[in-house]
From TrEMBL:
<protein>
    <submittedName>
        <fullName>Uncharacterized protein</fullName>
    </submittedName>
</protein>
<dbReference type="InterPro" id="IPR011990">
    <property type="entry name" value="TPR-like_helical_dom_sf"/>
</dbReference>
Length: 286
């Protein structure tokens, strides 16, 4: 009589164990799927922040933030994508939300300051940078500090910050160009020329620095092109800039000659130089 009871208990135990195994397996599968989804989302986020179209990235991160509003990484992604899409005004409130998050970092505060500078809110950017501990030393932080000091005409501070920033990056061309432009606006043309030359030495494709270098030379009435790498089109554009600089200095005849040379040098029709020359000749005849 006891055999059926024992068999029943055994079957019940087997069924119970089977159910436990199934539940355990299901939980493991769910965890695996969650882990895979997290990896996939992280990979997709990385793609959106690098090679994807900036506006598509904004759409992706906007949707992701709505689905997971507590995730600071998604808010960072949205703010960064808005900056990439040249939508700094929209990025500012998003960065503010990031900075208010319990997991916010000093990098986030620096990025907020960057967005504020892009929108012309220099005083707000200055306050945000002041909230970052002085021990937090990064290239971006010091580059922004230098730009804010420039805007306040605090030249010694600006020079100090630019110098530190140059030492914190392996690609200093951009900050050297900014530093040179700062010197140019102060009327320190020889120092500006040196800094623009250093910028080009670090990145010989940085046309902005080439153009600024010509402006610095023109301000010193040096109307010869510097010996730097340049394409034929760039040469024509730099001659045009130099010609306008000569006119600004009152050396109109020299300026006209440089404009004619720019027109002859350009591999195509150089409309901007043609208009400048016509305007000069018209003024002279009048």
């Amino acid at each position: 009589m006891r055999h059926p009871l024992i068999l029943s208990l055994c079957l019940t135990s087997v069924v119970g164990l089977s159910a436990c195994d199934q539940l355990r397996a299901k939980n493991e599968v769910d965890r695996a799927i969650t882990a895979v989804n997290a990896v996939d989302q992280n990979n997709l986020s990385d793609i959106m922040l690098t090679v994807a179209d900036p506006n598509e990235a904004v759409t992706y991160f906007t949707r992701s933030v709505k689905e997971s509003p507590d995730r600071i990484d998604l808010r960072r992604g949205l703010a960064t994508s808005l900056i990439r899409a040249n939508r700094a005004t929209e990025a500012v409130p998003v960065w503010r939300k990031v900075v208010e998050h319990p997991q916010a970092t000093n990098d986030d505060r620096v990025d907020l300051a960057d967005a504020l500078i892009r929108t012309g809110k220099w005083d707000d950017a200055d306050k945000v940078l002041d909230s970052v501990p002085p021990t937090f030393e990064t290239f971006k932080r010091y580059r922004l500090e230098a730009m804010v000091a420039d805007s306040n005409q605090e030249w010694k501070k600006a020079d100090s910050f630019y110098e530190v920033a140059v030492g914190l990056t392996t690609r200093p061309a951009g900050v050297l160009n900014n530093w040179g432009y700062s010197k140019l606006t102060r009327g320190d043309y020889s120092d500006a020329e040196r800094l623009f030359t250093d910028a080009i030495r670090n990145d010989d494709k940085l046309f902005t620095a080439k153009n600024n270098l010509v402006l610095a030379r023109g301000a010193q009435r040096n109307y010869t092109l510097p010996v730097i790498p340049m394409t034929q089109t760039e040469r024509a554009q730099l001659l045009h800039t130099l010609g306008l600089a000569a006119v600004k200095q009152g050396d109109v005849s020299t300026g006209k000659g440089l404009l004619r040379e720019a027109i002859e040098t350009h591999p195509q029709h150089f409309e901007a130089a043609v208009r400048s020359l016509r305007a000069l000749e018209s003024n002279v005849s009048n």
